[in-house]
Queue: 2 jobs
Job 1
Amino acid sequence: MPTDTAAGTRSTPTPPAAPRRRLIRRRSHRKKTALFTVVGIISIVTIFPVFWMFTSSFKGADEVLSTNIIPNDPTLSNFDYVFTSVPFARYMFNSFVVSATVTVIALFFHSMAAYALARLRFRGRDTIFIAIFSTLLVTAPVVLVPLFLVVHRLGLLNSYAGLIIPAIFSAFGIFLLRQFYLSIPAELEEAAILDGCGYWMIYRKIILPMSRSIFAALAVLFFLANWNSFLWPLVATTDQDLQVVQLGIASFQDQHSADWNYVLAAALVAAIPTLIVFAFFQRRIVESVKTSGLK
Amino acid sequence: MPPPSSSAPGPLRTLSRRRFLGGSAAAAATAAAAPLTGCGDIVGTSERDTLQFWNFYAPAPSEDPSVVARAEWMQATVDQWNAENPEQIELVFAPMLGSEKLATAFAAGTGPDIFLISPGDIIRYINGDVLVDLAPYLEQQAIDDFFPDNMASRVVGDQIFALPMEIEPLALYYSRPAFEQAGLAEGDLPTTWDDMLGIADRLIASGQGGLVVPSTQGYYQNFVWYPWMWQGGGSVLSDDGTSSAFDNDAAIEALRLWQTAVERGLTPRVEPAGDDIVTSFVEGYASIWQSGIWSISDFRRRAPEFDYGAFPLPTPPGGEQATALGGWAFAANADGANPDAAARFCAWALGSTDTAGVARVAEWCVETKTDIPPRVSSLEHAEQIGGFDTEIMSTFRDDIFPTGIGEPRFPPVIYKAVSDAIQSCQLAGGQPEEQAATAAQGIDAYLKTYEGAPL
Amino acid sequence: MTGTIGTADAPAPSTSHGERRQNNPNTRARRERRAAYLFLAPNLIGLTTFVAIPMLMSIVLAFFSVDGFGGYTFVGTANFERMVNDPLFLSSLGRTLIYLFVLVPGLFVSGLGLALLVRSQFPLVGLFRTALFAPNVISLVVIALIWKFLLTDDVGFVAKILGRVGITPPSWLGDPSYALATVMVITIWFSMGYYMLIFLAGLQDIPREYYEVASIDGAGPWATFRNVTWPLLKPTSFFILLTSTIAVMTGGLEMLVVLTNGGPANSTTLVIYYVYQQAFVYGEFGYASAIASIMVLILLAWSALLFALTRGGRFTHAD
């Protein structure tokens, strides 16, 4: 891949000799074919279990757990059921509101903190970073009850705020962004300071624009984490109007048996938004190539 | 349950209930977060005036007829109560697949006023002192009306800590098409363990599915296993509940039975079709399956045409028939907003002796579910309204239920010791004698320091 | 001081810029400090309230016996003593170590490998990336069902395929000697796309010029990887090494609960599952907290080691 990016974008004053360029072309073509084949096979193997879920969600209740890959009697009734019998659209809406809000606010807050930790010099910087980092070591099952108490005390149970606010704060994004900001060349900031920019301006005009690819990646991860969250919404809400997607899926499972045809259809529907988010952002991640700023 | 107090030196002994965590949370949260949000208890649940009834039936999240029927029964019961009483009750749906919700709420001291409880869990609640004794709210006539064997796990002395809403006995289901394919007839239904293994062998030899008993470790597996031990006269604890009786032949043979079934390839190591009996029978993945009476309604709903039957668990040589009785119960939270009203509700909903009360329980069991009513009068009423007209329901009532023993209430340590023995023998090649002895040791060691309700 | 390996030859702060900047060093340092605290403030408040305080409360709980119904009794170090004599805890710790030693490198290599494969443009690459990430977007309950179904003994898809070539596979999830390995494979299957994504972003962070230089120098793919990609990927690698260790040790719980419930015969009872079981199945929140605090200690030690080796993940003078 180094070869084709180099050949594709460079505007060097001395173009390589024609035969060499042809060689590079041919090599790069062969390489693309090889990549296509290898990645294609891995992707198919990886996606296969998901494919089974896809086809099975079109099976009826009597067939859903049979081993056939292709339904004998495909039906859309599971999807119909998921949307008509359960306020599934409402669940999706709730999940979307929570996930999108958390993602946007978290990206903003986390990048601010990461900028300070990576680029600014102040007393206690390393201590603060380590303290922030150590909150990553949290073990969900044992903090659930204390967190519940805190949120209860703050009067945030059974509200959107109770779903959103605790989910915003995590050291994961701060840590990842800090690692990225460490490698930004100092010259850019130096120049900005010479131009009289304050730190807020540097953050907005230099740091944020350089964060596009990592923001795209983090947006996917944040959205995903919140869209898939189950335990916290389970304990933090009792109001039916605040139910989120994963709770909706769980409601198709009862005491001794589960309606797997509905569970699968609901899970498929629930997977679509995150897949779209991923498909949309994955291009951003790889397209926004950074330059070193050194010329 | 309180730990051995000898291990708690110093003046800092028992802190008052709910003060400690709640208090520190309050202090910490106020200090750290008040400036962040700037608002106090606006939406708090602390000042709720209606009683909450957490359950996994209503409000129904679904439109499936059988789910709706259960939700409607719940709703109708609560509506009637609300119309007749000043204390209002609200139904809150807490999904089955989310027991953490209840555990978190109780640990935080904000448990629901009324909730559903299973025998597997009840001892922790009894020893935690959070259940209201319902006996004072029940007429003696009502107390006598409940089947005593099934009540045992909910009773301490003459206190009643939960009222069962249903009885769910276990049996072996079999697939008639599979039996026919293997050239087996009704008369071949096994009555002894050896018969059962032989029949399973024949089924598998002729290309049919095998015999399924649970293999996933957990409370449910123990529950399903106990009757195999009981049949040989064994039990986990001695009669007075103060020492282990697990190291006995009956338990060892029951462990060996499940082990043999797996080793001979008659029982799969993982339940087929995601542990679903209906699909497994319809698709031919299994021919015999140990399950509870509830499966009847699953077949009705999802494969009404499928031809199946049920028979009592086969017995070992010289053994006696036995089965385990499961089912959930209503319980009232002693630390709730209004324990008295919560207890009155439980007693009224399931223990009223008037016609409506008797009918209510019967309807729950045979109209919304396929269960045995937990009361003599309700069972009679259920018969009158046709709940036992089908062959399979009458088989359960006549041949299976009478040999039932209520699911025992064991604290986690005892449950786990038994579970480890079952798992080790069934799936990891453990020696039944050794495993039974190890479990018995563990149970005895635990019982030495156990303080709490008799087991 | 902020340069990484790649930009290590960047001018030090003692250039002509530096001289002018020193006009008023005190004011600048103060401004910088104040700005830093302001940038950090929202996160610090939020993290303290919703993560640190609950964490501290759970650590305090480790010294209490908790009945799960709001009753707390101080028991000193009893919970920690109990751990030493608890065979299931000790065996779960052993299993967790195996799990770590396999999964952390496994996820690192598979994530990085996939990222290197799909970073460039070729036909359908966007679709392939999405396919590789797809397992992440599915609810874990369904993931567990899918695998239970595919791996069912005799009638499952995998058994049927292998049966066709004459292999009788073991019971992947029902045999204690295979179950943990099966869980690890499933975990890699569904997490590798996640780490691929982070690595992809990290790779994009490497300035293209370096590759151009390498290509002009006639470096082969391996040399390019060793001399350009690997050193410049260090901050990302560091991040992944740490967070995947944490994730492997403290995550994946929901899947264990629905896939194996810690079985068969406890063979997939990892520490995190044991903590969960103690807390939510047995109501032993105190004991669960004690075990969790041991996990925190282990992770702290591991992180401290990595931090020390890498100068706080900055790699400033390391290597």
Job 2
Amino acid sequence: MAEISVKINGQEVQIEKGKTLLQACEELGIDVPTLCYHPRVAIEGACRLCMVEDKKSGQLIASCTLEADDGMEIETESPRVVEARKLVLDLLLASHDVDCFACERNGDCRLQDYSYRYGIERTAFPGERREFPIDNQNPFFERDYNRCIQCGLCVRACHEIPQAGAIDFANRGFSSEIATPFNVPLEDSTCVFCGMCVELCPVGALVPRLDRFTGRPWEIEKVRTTCAYCGVGCQIELNVNEDRVVGISGYGESEPNYGDLCVKGKFGWDYIHHPERLTAPLVRKEGKLVPTSWEEALDYTARKFKEIKEEHGGDALGGLTSAKCTNEENYLFQKFVRAALATHNVDHCARL
Amino acid sequence: MKTRVLVGMGTCGIAAGARKVMEALEKGLQGVEGVELLPTGCVGLCEKEVVAEIQKNGEKTIYGDLTPEKVERLIEEVVLKGNIIEDWIAARPEEPILAKQERIVLENCGHINPENIDEYLEKGGYKGLEKALKDMTPDQVVEEVKTSGLRGRGGGGFPAGLKWQFASQAPGDKKYVVCNADEGDPGAFMDRSIKEGDPHALLEGMLICGYAIGSDEGYIYVRAEYPLAIKRIKVAMKQAEERGYLGENILETDYNFRIKIKEGAGAFVCGEETALLASIEGRMGRPRPRPPYPATKGLWNKPTNINNVETYANIPRIIRRGGEKFAQIGTEKSTGTKVFALTGKINNTGLIEVPMGISIREIIYDIGGGIPEGRKFKAVQIGGPSGGCIPAHLLDLPIDYDSLVESGAIMGSGGLVTMDEETCMVDVAWFFLNFTQKESCGKCTPCREGTKRMLEILERIKAGKGKNEDIERLKFLGRNIVDTSLCGLGQTAPNPVLSTLRFFEDEYRAHIEEQRCPAGVCADLLRYVIVQEDCKRCSICVKVCPVNAISGKPKEKHLIDQEICTKCNACLEKCPFDAIVKK
């Protein structure tokens, strides 16, 4: 790849051609604030927070959308840049329900972080605000658009990741809002509840319902693991607070999913601490199911298989495997059924 | 030679009653030999609608203020006898209103039947296309447009030839020619008049552009609120196709070009080129950042040339007569002419075409005939809602792209609103900002949120509740919205506020510091008062007041209760003794 040379904050650096200024800054460890940029979805250039000053033209430019060009000279925190950024934040706060106390994202909110960074206590422009009823009709997440900053990440996530196209911008100008077609409830839209909008929301406008009031962001420990639901093996992070799982986030840095999740992976974790969850194998003794060890359970099952096979032949047995298993596990399972149980009676839940 | 009667049947003429005049003429001319009665486009004399041009014995006379009742005398004296009715003449060619104009783009408007291709051909129509296809290479066409110095007439003023060159050099097999015919500025009707009055000129311009950049498909994006324009473009397209000027193997060459019409739903932001392209593609009309520019990545990501109607309509003449000839008109950096819609507090409202470099004074006083009732000229708003106000001390400013930008206005698409001493500049700023704020697409923060906050401040000032720091706040907001907005709409939306603040800050201060509207416009700051010395106690005002704010019986003293008064102006209008005044 060809390299070009740009000067950022007086420092001359070589970067790959084709990168945006924002990406170049990121590589150099310069933190340029942005609310509408996310590497997972298309670049929109909507929030106008990532403005930097082009020393040569004297113009402010959005660093997320502009490809770096050879010989550019950029300032990322010049007085003009800071003035413009402060105004953008101030304007967002003027239309934002600044009720951080009750917000799930308190402490993990980019709007809050940047406002603090630039020393904004409260908006200088109190005036009319868009007001929305809080939508908590669906079982998975709550939509509080009084907190929405209209960065559009949810819209792009919805259109680009599951390609559900359930939400988009409606109306124009100050009246614009995120909505389903004709404002039908999400459940009646094409939403698949993958939760990618929730994952990408930089503020507290979209939050999972189960996660509410289970811990502040700074109390949460992230534990990387593999999703238990299917054979894809999505990489996830368990959000753990005091040894209890209180939520799940996609792990963005690895295949196969690079942060993407589905409805089960994102929202279906409440079985983990469910009181009725089986945590040990059960064997029926004197008409009652009682917990036992894996050793006993496996011995018992193997013995029964043998008895049936000897008495009635292999075709009296059959096996059904699950989509939760990987391809390799499924392969082993059919091998076991055919070779050890001696029958072709084997199938998979995905064919049901 | 046949006598021709051409009735101005643009949307404006029809709204003023042209259909009824037409019907009366049809009736009156029934059975009369040697007279042709035809519809034509707008000749630009809005103030005089209904207008008809009568061509007899090689003479052309434009009659105005016509009504069905006047038709009989018109036929009798003018059409049949060849006399002239002096009093009814709308404008004479030697009068400044016409003499100071230079009509290139509008040369056919009001003089030909736009629904008949033969009339366009008679005026040299499609000769430019023929010359381009048969005598010039595509590159030569681009060069000719560059030589002409033509700059985009839609607002930005980017050199058209250069734009064409970018699209022509952009790699790609499929390219598009797009015409921005959306014309969203309030009070602007330049492009509509061309579409309604000379639609073939637009088609020919697009056809030449297609040949120059190597495109075989064009789109005209026109607002659905222009049904007559759409109809006339469709008629023109059909006729052009029948004559071999549009479609396959145009003029027996291997050049093919098709045009499609896309009707817009009336969003101002869809006049922004990237939003316009999104709208054609069936997506939401929201702009995207540039670069990449449409010349390399436009419609469906293909190289695309976008110009507006007036720009394309200039092209056939440039090719036909040569770029150099065109460049001789106007100034060095702003060549050719510009069409303006002259409105507001001015005697001759209408559509005018003037050479670039003409002074504002000439437009206002010579062509426009000055301010009505001898009132004082205060400012002129140029460039529509994205433009700025130019005050009286700059009356001699020449109208060209660069001088206007320097003065804080822009050329825009050509709206020209005149204001007199009874216009409040805070109110004007509010009016335009209210428009752009409502038409903001909502995508980027500064435009969506910032223009709203500016508007709130203006509303506060208009209501007499402004604070001293509001002026600085408006400047701060305006400056940063200009600097940080994503597209041209946001980058120019604060202009009306910033330019009125630049030249009329004292008016803002009067509102804030003295709760006074010097022009007497802002209703919240007005008081209607009865001048007791002049009042004859007739109590008409008591009767007309719709909210019973005026007390007193006949022959008793009348008083207006300021708490109840809604400032509707009814009493002031009705008082026979002018005893009620606004303070």
